[in-house]
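Repro:
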Amino acid sequence: MQPVAATTATPKGELHGIIRDERGQPLQGAVILASVLGSSSMFARSDRDGRFAFRSLPPGAYLVRAFLNGYVTSRGNVVQVTAGARQAWEISLNRAGEGDGEEEAPATAATTRVFLAGVGGTSIVPETTVPAEPHETTEVEWRLKQLKRPVLKDAYTVIERDAHPFESIVAARESASMSTRLFALFDTVNGQVNLLTTSSFSRPQDLFDATAGTPRPVAYGSVMVPLATGDWAIRGSMTEGDIASWILAGSSTRRRMPSHPSSHIYQVGLSYATQRYQGVNAEALAAMRDGSRNVGEISADDSWTLHPRLVLATGGRYASYDYLADRALLGGRFSIAYQVAPTDPLRLRLTASHRELAPGAEEFVAPSAGLWLPPELTFSPLSRAGVLRPEKVDVVELSGERPVGGGVVVAVRAFRQQVDDQLVTLFGSSLRSGPSLGHYRVASAGDFENYGWGFTVARHVSGSVEATLDYTMTDTQRRGFSTDARLLRLLAPDVLRRDENVHDLTASVNGRLAVTATRFVVVYKLNNAYAQGVTRRAEPGARFDVQLNQEIPFLDFTGARWEMLMGVRNLFRTDLFEGSVYDELLVVRPPKRITGGVTVRF
């Protein structure tokens, strides 16, 4: 199921924030510059509460700086403005030393903190999108960013180009020398390095058991270069140990230009992942007959604004999995969105999509959001002679969404899914060996036809806090059993579903505590149809994902932002709102996965 929010198209974005002094007090009259290399700049002046805003910004990377007489000029930093999103930016200016005879102190002395938040959307951002400043997010933050942001009635003053005499000073500095321009180019490059450790556990005492889940080191790096017409990005992750694996992905995005608002925007991406197992699990060794598994994927997404109220979007994917009998998997999506009236923000959307999901694909495909880890688990077919078959899902959906005031967006949807070879994932179930947290079995539960409806409510609560609530009700109808039914009836009988009603409620909150410089994301998913593996009927249950990022302020002198990261989750799937309603529900006894380490952003 993919709700309306996942494909909403809005052509512009917003950047808003607040200017404070070193004591945290708001500063009035500061001039904020937002510019793109090779393009025009925009200026805004902070009001008496220190607030500023830029609206109707074309998507892309903007170099943002703040100026105020008597204060140290802020260091230039880059913020990525997404179509329909509302980015929040907080800048701290330190007072210049008295009696130094200079109007401004060196720009390197300021401190700047960044928080990306908002309810935004774009029609072409695919699962492998690489953000301008990669940041660890979970499914809910990705979901929030897919919803259309209503126009908030903020009384901020926006100063256009040539509307303030301060522009001439900035322009003179921008064009002072070629070296300055080259420095500004390198200053727009964003990057991130993660040094992490990840492990799995079923019970808290497993954290102290060396045989339960061996911690694995993970290294992650990413670089993004924003250009005048688009962005280039590359990221990769690797791990060593019993499972040696790595993933490398790159993308190129062309943004819509202000001079050609009707032109289309597109993104192309390429990823490659490999996994080699060197452990002692006999099932994993038998499943990897060639000693390794390799996966490659190519994707392309495109969006056309045919009319200010009419947007057409298409996308396609081709993937090759060398461990499948039929290695080639295809996917595609087509959608058309229409704004009902020029003065009414209500938008209707019709979407048709086809997806082919390989068993174990979550180990190899770059996630749309959340921590990006290399393949860290092994898997095998449930039966000895089992053949790994991909799940195929066809979805048709009609949806609509509308801001209703007060920072609230409401979306409703109705959908139909046809699923062939619904995937089942089993942890700790084996006919030949004991349970293993690092290995799972995959099987097919058969074919289904699902009809449902749902609604989503998203709200910008306050400051840097966003919340969303999603409810879905689905009527499922079985169309046929698979060849794995006999073994599944013995090991996990409750995955062999017949006709039933599935109710799902997913709540999520993400935000930033400015006082402690802590970012957090929390997802909590309630459902009445989680497979338990030991009963003959599904049971209600809950799954979660929690992540915290804590800035380390005493390392700011390095010119980069350092953070401590901690995350715990037992949600297995990365994309909660893609594919079949059963994808997460038929994951039996998933272990809790804990991740911790250090993040460096530059």
